[in-house]
Amino acid sequence: MRRVSKTLAGALAVFLLAVGLAACGGGGGDGSSSSSTEAGQAQGEGAAAKSGSKQGEAKGGEGEEGGSESSSRESEAAEFKPKRHSDSGGGSQQFVQKGGDNSVQEFGKEADKQELETAAAALHNFLDARAEGNWAAACDYMAKSVVESFEKLATQAKQLKDAGCSGILEALTNPAAKSAMKQEAAQADVGSLRVEGDRSFVIYRGAKGTILAMPMANEGGDWKVAGLAGTPLN
User: Fold this and answer.
1) pTM for the full model?
2) I need a labelling partner for 222 at 20 to 30 A (CA). Which of 44, 141, 146, 178 fits?
3) 3-state DSSP: the chain helix, strand, coil percent, rounded to 5?
4) Which residues make beta-bridge pairs with 110?
5) In sequence order, which residues have a C-beta less than 8 Å from that of residue 90 and are 6 or more positions away?
6) Dist. CA 37–CA 167, nearest whole Å
7) pLDDT tens-digit profile of 24-41?
8) What are the helix and strand counts (H, E) for the chain?
9) Taking the domains of the chain in order of start, what are their residue ranges?
């Protein structure tokens, strides 16, 4: 496992928190239900097709060594196969906490069924790839703006040999969390997508009934994960 400096890890945490939670507003909520199976398969195929160009931009090193590592990451991403998931939907109203902070639950407005399915597919694919340790595939479902920002920060960590998205995700992931990540990926049940412009939050049930919110960003019509982990709402 590659190591990354505490300063860099702290900077990444602050940045991702700012991206995900800074713009919470108000709005209403509608009910909706969703099954992300078909959307997940379609998005997975698209991500695999794009992985060559995206992973080729990673700063994995110079010369033959860098090229070999980049090629390995591309193959890794192409091997990822989206799994079948069913989501209960129902809208954000079910997650409102009486007397609590409901800024995420009331952010923007409730998305329609199709948009919810698209965002849910991206989240499921990210969680599944992360649980498998397929960092290259996980990066395919992350927002480009977030990836570029923490790649820039990663250049400050001289000991980090692979300063591309894949290498950073691997370095930031605690091996002891592998079991928990697999459990979350298997049990994730998306109930709501709150949207405001190109920003949104997917609200979902994780392991042991924990309600989580994952920030998302719309890039070219596709919803991408804009955080490394969901934020607990309960």
Assistant:
1) 0.72
2) 178
3) 50, 15, 35
4) 194
5) 31, 32, 33, 191, 192
6) 29
7) 333 444 444 444 544 444
8) 8, 6
9) 6-232
